[in-house]
Amino acid sequence: MPLIPRPTYGRPGSSETPDDAAPLASEERIDASPAAEPDATSMSDGASNAAPPPAAPAGPAASTSGPVGSNGAANGTTSPSAAPAPRISIPSSGAARGSGPGGAPAGAMGGGTDRTASATVELRQRLHRTLIREIDQSALNSMPPEEAREFVEQAVRQLVDREVPAGRAGFRDRLQEQLVDDVLGLGPLEPLLRDNTISEIMVNGAKQVYVERAGKLYVAPAEFQDDAHVVHVIERILTPTGRTIDESNPLVDARLPDGSRVNAVIPPASITGPLLTIRKFVADRLTADDLVSMGSLSQQSSDILAAAVHAGLNIIVSGGTGSGKTTMLNVLSSWIPSDERIVTIEDPAELSLRQPHVVRLEARPNEHGGAIHQRDLLRNALRMRPDRIIVGEVRGAEAFDMLQAMNTGHDGSLSTVHANTPRDAVRRIENMVMMAGFDLPVRAIREQVASAIDVVLQVERMRDGTRRTVAVSEVVGMEEQTVTMQDLFLFEQRGVDEDGRIVGELKPTGLRPSFAERLESQGVRLPLAAELENGWAAG
User: Taking a C-beta distance cutoff of 8 angstroms, is the pair 375, 394 a contact?
Assistant: First the structure.
């Protein structure tokens, strides 16, 4: 059986017409050609001031070129009593300057432009419903992605050729691309997802979409049909992940197949309407050399961090939302030797490690029979013979288990935390342990922190949109009731250039890290150039 049944409507002599095959509204039809041009296939974008089309002559059936009428007549005929089909001009990218009856501008007839846009939306919705009805979705899902896309593109071309009269090619091409995206992808978001210059997509209801480029926000030329369309796209994202969203569970985190992070909120939690945020995954993962060339790291700090990771120091990446913590965590993990077993714990999963021996665990919200928390996964990871444990982000009670793991022989652990400074990061981890309900003295918790964490890396999204490492700090130990730290590198801003970009660099403070001897005892030697440039040669 073919996936697209051969339609029995739309052919001369046929009177079969499914409900969705009817024209847009009461025998209206789409005419993609300018009204002034007698040739329906002309593609001129010039101004048009032609008179309205003549009425259909009385008497026997008159010929017409529109799609099937709502009275069920076959394409190419109208009944004697049928009124002539009004012409709706579909404008190109330029302004439409057609005229209505009596020579009045089209826009003066009670919103010609709005009527055209509404008709275009209705056409797209009707054709989409037809595709959904005619395509065998189960067979489509069983196809390889390339074959499925080729098949849908062919089906869409056939449908558009059948339902939309020949006219301006640009409109038909855009309509076909939108329909393919609606069937196979995420509708209006597909062009934004394909744009590699966009790092984040923010949907604020059906009619407002923002994107982030180079750290700055811009309004995107995209919109949804209505709020239900946004919810449909959200559900399409969630279906492969096994997660759900509804009024009783209006908040959800998920990811796209390429690893992009997704957050969705729907009413009643959102007053604005359905909200969708997608932080795109970079296919070409940034390397340490990339960060050095971009100014996010200096070569000296990169060498020190590579040595620290290789020697098994425990490192925390601290920063605000969107500051580049996950990117930095991926860079740090790239220095882990390839012969070690790595267990990652995330909520949701978004790390991209290139080592051959990686085991990935992911937390689950309270759905489908119970939640799986990061703390549960962390405790289980200790039984999986890990050489390294990487926690995507520490948010709660798992902080205590992470400290325990770091202090019981699982060196080289990596994680991230939301905080504004390295010292704030240490305090936050301390507070998370206390808020988890553990009846421990403050000093005991701080001793755990001071013993477990070796280095805190602070990243920041700056005013110009760039993401930089602003501090590399070492946890030295305890002095009475205080966790002591020292800064090894600090970002020094020199000014702002003519384009508004912050000028500065990550510079060493000249303090020799106390873990230098530990690195040497593990066979890791700091580069001599790094020691000289940082003023450590004298010891």
Answer: no
Between CA 97 and CA 100 the distance in angstroms is: 10
The answer to whether the CB of 438 falls within 8 A of the CB of 414 is no
Q: Measure Cα distances from 49 to 41, 103, 109, 353 in Å.
A: 18, 8, 15, 62
Q: Which residues contact 430 (CB under 8 A, 6 or more apart)?
A: 442, 445, 446, 449
pLDDT digits (tens, 9 = 90+) for 167-192: 666 777 777 787 887 777 888 898 89
pLDDT in tens, 326-347: 999 999 999 999 999 999 999 8
ω into residue 144 within 30 of 0, thus cis? no
CA 171, 176, 179, 184 torsion: positive or negative?
negative
The residue with tokens 């992605």 is: 145
> Could you tell me the pLDDT band of residue 116, with boundaries at 50, 70 and 90?
low
Residue 376 near residue 355, CB atoms below 8 Å: no
Q: How far is CA 164 from CA 85, 182, 424, in A?
A: 14, 18, 62
- The residue among 254, 248, 255, 246 whose CA lies nearest residue 274 is 246
CA 40/CA 166 separation, integer angstroms:
7
- What is the spatial distance between Cα 381 and Cα 286, in angstroms, rounded to a whole number? 28
Structure confidence at residue 66 (pLDDT): 38
Mean pLDDT throughout 84-100? 35
3-state secondary structure of 210: strand
Which residue's entry shows tokens 């660099």? Answer: 505
Which positions ≥6 away from 507 have C-beta within 8 Å? 298, 489, 490, 491, 492
Are residues 287 and 331 in contact, defined by beta-carbon separation less than 8 angstroms?
yes
d(CA 275, CA 230): 8
Helix-helix angle 442-452:398-406, to 10 degrees: 50
The torsion angles phi and psi of 345, rounded to 5 degrees, stand at -130, 120
The burial of 409, by beta-carbon neighbours within 10 Å (0-12 exposed, 13-18 middle, 19 or more buried), is given as exposed
Helix axis angle, 442-452 relative to 422-435, nearest 10°?
A: 130
Which one of 72-81, 165-174, 345-354, 463-472 scores highest in mean pLDDT?
A: 463-472
Distance CA 269, CA 146 (A): 38
Distance CA 53, CA 85 (A): 10
Rounded Cα–Cα distance for residues 399 and 477 (Å): 19
Q: Is the peptide bond before 268 cis (omega within 30 degrees of 0)?
A: yes
Please report where in the chains the tokens 């057609």 appear, as a residue. 98
Sign of CA dihedral 435, 440, 441, 447: negative
* Rama region for 10: left / alpha / beta (φ>0; ψ in -120 to 50; rest): left
**Helix or strand holding residue 429 (H, E):** helix 422-435
